[in-house]
Amino acid sequence: MHKDQIYIQYLKENNSQGIQHIYNLFAKKIVSLIVFNSGSEDDAYDILQESLMDIYHMAHERDFKLTTSFESFLSLVCKRKWLNVLKKNKQIQVTNSEESLLYIEDHSAKDLEELFLVIDRENKVMEVLHALGERCQEIIKRCLVEKHQEKIAESLGISYAYLRKKKSECMRTLTERVKALGVF
Amino acid sequence: MEKDLERIQDYIDGQLDSGELAEFENRLAKDEELRRQLRMQQEISHVLAKRALSDEDKVRSTITNVSKEFRRKHVSNIVWLKRYATVASVACVLLLVGLFFLNRKTEVYTLPEIQSEIVRGQEQNRLYEDAVSAFNGGKYSEARAKLEDLLKENSTQIQNQYYLGLSYVGEKDWEHAISILKPISQGVSVFRNEAQYYLAVSYYKNGEKSKAVLLLDQLCNEIDEWCEKALDLKKKIK
After folding, report:
1. pLDDT, tens digit, for every residue of B157-193?
2. Quick check: pTM over 0.80?
3. Residue B66 and residue A141: Cβ atoms within 8 Å?
4. ipTM of predicted complex
5. Is B41's CB within 8 Å of A175's CB?
6. Closest listed residue to residue B74, CA positions, set A76, A85, A44
7. How many angstroms away from the CA of B53 is the closest CA of chain A?
8. Cβ distance A30 to A74 under 8 Å?
9. Do residue B50 and residue A122 have CB atoms under 8 angstroms apart?
10. Which of A39, A85, B41, B149 could form a disulfide linkage to A43, CB 3.0–4.6 angstroms apart?
11. What kind and span of H or E run contains A73?
């Protein structure tokens, strides 16, 4: 196991001091990287934050083990995320030079790319969820987390039948939008 | 289609009675499109459940708070970084122009010119401007002496440390250049990459070619704008 696995652990355990340590060690370099590549300081901190969230989710996926330094890994995640932003804003064209920018000295690069794709897919589903109304979000989340839907309905001041109908509508909307994005 | 989406969701949630369940499973066995739709909804439900059951919100809150605190503490450094990014950019342009006109057969590197800090004719620091004038005039020993005086006033000023390092390069005092440029190349200032480049030059001139090549390779793996310069130097020294 790489000695930097501890940083993955900090994220996994929501260790505030550990996360502060991550910022103290790596934030400036990441910010410089984004700022030197057409980003603002705000962009840089947003990318860093979202990249750390992605790493948190990766840490829970298949018991993720770091095989390179955390600095290299974090840089890779951030670069990848920032490239996607630039592509989306049409600020860059897709070129072969991306491969060298995103290269990481790691024999499990293919596994890593698959993991990135899983997290990207999940993030897109969550983006669609967050674009639904607050009531839909609440109903969907609570129905997933809590066992007794009758109690959920009661706490929301609606009938059980109405809850089922509303949940069904929300999930239908969400599914249609996810399908339209071509995520799955 | 709408009804199918609702029926699929009820199936996933275990909300179908025995009759409805049998009918639905019978349809699934015959309808490939229905099976595909079911797989997609199952995957979506799986993602939602995974994220809903994670501590995502708490972790995001922690990261947000840490980020805010970090930015609050480091705002002065970033402002300084932006301020001197212009200086570094101008220095790079001057360096490239210098390289274009210089006879490359005689030297593998050129030194940049130091940017003056005079704004709208108003001089802020006489000693610094004297150092700039001496350095840009090729009087590196004189520039070094003035930069050393400036550093006595403020030893943490990385800009002056960097130019002191370059003054040693100008004097061809490679060992002193290395001792000054090495910590800057390992730090996080805006001069980091330039320091790394001139540190590589100093190592090469000091007979430590492998260290020079290693540094140039690192430069190429990091910030792209420096890759071309590093490759060019590497070609010359090999």
Report:
1. 788 898 999 999 999 999 999 999 999 998 877 678 8
2. no
3. no
4. 0.87
5. yes
6. A44
7. 6
8. yes
9. yes
10. A39
11. helix A70-88
